[in-house]
């Protein structure tokens, strides 16, 4: 057999794989599992137990088959924790905007400008912040300027909107409200 | 066992005669423009059911498909760097049958009829626009130049299309779908050299109606009563279909922006699906950075 999947993390699909020459690789998710890193076995050995790896010792003919197996493990793990139709975490949302491919960015930039036009400043700030961390956007100066402008304008407008409430102390109000309720 | 290409070549005289008849009743200049357009912009596209998102027609809400890991076609193509057919992708017959779904018997009959049938890859012809929205949120498009002319055959209708809606009898098959009706199929085939006459013949009625023709409809037309474009020109090839320079990945701008809305709306529950999309995007980015894939919104 060409490759042996020595161990994998059953929660997220990291894998330790040996090729026919005995070289050891650490395979990293996500999805493509092409994040292949050669490492000396002695260096990787302690990680097998330390980082939650489970020994598998399964043989495969091709890298593709190894990647597919790891992908299955990751998907299965997601399903088992009920991660099939849950609410989206803030981090998931940000990850989406950080990874929008080059040719699709224009759609996101137009969208953020439409949020600004509608006065949805919170969304502009949220999406804008994540988009500005998108490495593809950094390569496109004109789109980057448009996002930055929308972001700055939304920030300014939201500050203007909130400024009348800057002395507002929600804790104090709530305490007062709670006291009333107990009376 | 038969070769597919010879059948398409046999059809040339019939095609060209009918094409000449069509040309007499329509604007020749428009038709030439159409031909030029297709030869310049023509593409071959893949149905990329992608586990992406769709908007519910009634309540307008966004939902994600992501039917199963094995059906994330686009992810699978990007991971392998190639479009593999069911024989290349699944070793076991059971897996192939499950992939072929309701056409499992017909697909086997069709593929086994031809000498290179098990190498056939089924695609759609596209005019350089978005593609077939019913085939997924992304259109993966290969320029015609990607293909060797003698490895490409165009079929007037989907090769497994039913003769009558609601029945199981397929158009290009003999009774009970037991074998291929070769004379019928042959009449509807074309090579790259004569694919334009095939398209013109298919849309003869539309062309005869007048000169104000939407060219997109000549290649891709909504079937009456169905909301999406399904009446397409099928393409069969038996060569490798690899992701390489010149290949484009398109998405519809409105649908992409609706997805952004869904993601930013706190009420929407799309958790795992958003993660799938994020991962798909990372995969697309990798190909983009290697300059092997152009992405665009249309």
Description:
- The complex is a heterodimer of chains A (183) and B (298).
- Chain A has 183 residues and is of the alpha+beta class.
- Chain A has nine helices and five strands.
- In chain A, strands 4-3-2-1-5 form a five-stranded antiparallel beta sheet.
- In chain A, a hairpin with a 5-residue loop joins β1 (3-9) and β2.
- The mean pLDDT of chain A is 81.
- With 298 residues, chain B is of the alpha+beta class.
- In chain B, the strands form three sheets. In chain B, strands 7-6-10-4-1-5-11-12 form an eight-stranded mixed beta sheet, with helices on both faces. A two-stranded antiparallel ribbon of chain B has the order 2-3. Chain B has a two-stranded antiparallel sheet with strand order 8-9.
- Chain B is globular, with a radius of gyration of 20 Å.
- Chain B starts with a helix and ends with a strand.
- Chain A binds chain B through residues 30-32, 34, 64, 67, 71-72, 75, 78, 83-89, 92-93, 95-96, 99-104, 106-108, 110-111, 115, 123, 126-127, 136, and chain B through 69, 75, 78-80, 249, 251, 253, 256-257, 260-261, 263-264, 266, 268-275, 277-286, 288, 294-297.
């Amino acid at each position: 057999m060409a490759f042996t999947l020595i161990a994998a993390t059953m929660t997220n699909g990291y894998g330790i794989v040996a090729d026919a020459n005995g070289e050891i690789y650490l395979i990293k998710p996500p999805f493509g599992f092409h994040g292949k890193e050669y490492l000396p076995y002695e260096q990787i050995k302690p990680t097998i137990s330390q980082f939650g790896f489970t020994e598998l010792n399964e043989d495969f003919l091709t890298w593709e088959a190894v990647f597919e197996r790891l992908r299955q493990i990751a998907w299965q793990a997601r399903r088992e924790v009920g991660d099939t139709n849950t609410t989206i975490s803030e981090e998931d949302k940000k990850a989406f905007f950080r990874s929008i491919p080059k040719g699709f960015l224009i759609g996101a930039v137009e969208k953020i400008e439409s949020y600004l036009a509608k006065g949805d400043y919170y969304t502009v700030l949220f999406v804008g912040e994540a988009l500005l961390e998108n490495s593809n956007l950094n390569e496109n100066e004109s789109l980057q300027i448009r996002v930055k402008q929308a972001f700055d304008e939304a920030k300014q407008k939201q500050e203007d909107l909130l400024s009348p409430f800057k002395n507002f102390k929600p804790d104090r109000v709530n305490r007062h409200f709670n006291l009333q309720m107990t009376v | 066992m038969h070769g597919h290409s010879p059948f398409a070549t046999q059809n040339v005289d019939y095609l060209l005669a009918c094409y000449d008849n069509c040309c007499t009743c329509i604007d020749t200049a428009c038709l030439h423009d159409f031909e030029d357009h297709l030869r310049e912009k023509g593409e071959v596209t893949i149905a990329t059911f992608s586990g992406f998102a769709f908007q519910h027609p009634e309540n307008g809400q966004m939902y994600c498909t992501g039917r199963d890991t094995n059906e994330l076609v686009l992810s699978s193509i990007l991971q392998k760097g190639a479009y593999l057919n069911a024989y290349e992708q699944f070793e076991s017959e059971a897996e192939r049958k499950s992939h072929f779904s309701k056409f499992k018997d017909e697909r086997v009959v069709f593929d086994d009829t031809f000498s290179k049938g098990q190498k056939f890859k089924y695609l759609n012809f596209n005019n350089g626009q978005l593609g077939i929205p019913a085939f997924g949120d992304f259109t993966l498009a290969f320029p015609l130049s990607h293909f060797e002319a003698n490895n490409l055959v165009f079929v007037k209708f989907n090769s497994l299309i039913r003769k009558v809606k609601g029945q199981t009898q397929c158009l290009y098959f003999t009774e009970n779908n037991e074998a291929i009706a070769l004379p019928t199929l042959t009449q509807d085939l074309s090579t790259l050299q004569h694919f334009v006459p095939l398209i013109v013949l298919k849309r003869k009625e539309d062309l005869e109606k007048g000169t104000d023709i939407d060219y997109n409809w000549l290649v891709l037309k909504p079937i009456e009563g169905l909301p999406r474009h399904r009446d397409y020109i099928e393409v069969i090839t038996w060569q490798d279909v690899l992701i390489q320079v010149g290949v484009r990945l398109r998405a519809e701008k409105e649908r992409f922006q609706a997805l952004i809305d869904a993601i930013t709306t706190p009420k929407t529950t799309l958790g795992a699906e958003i993660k799938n999309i994020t991962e798909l995007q990372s995969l697309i980015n990798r190909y983009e950075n290697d300059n092997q894939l152009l992405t665009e919104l249309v």
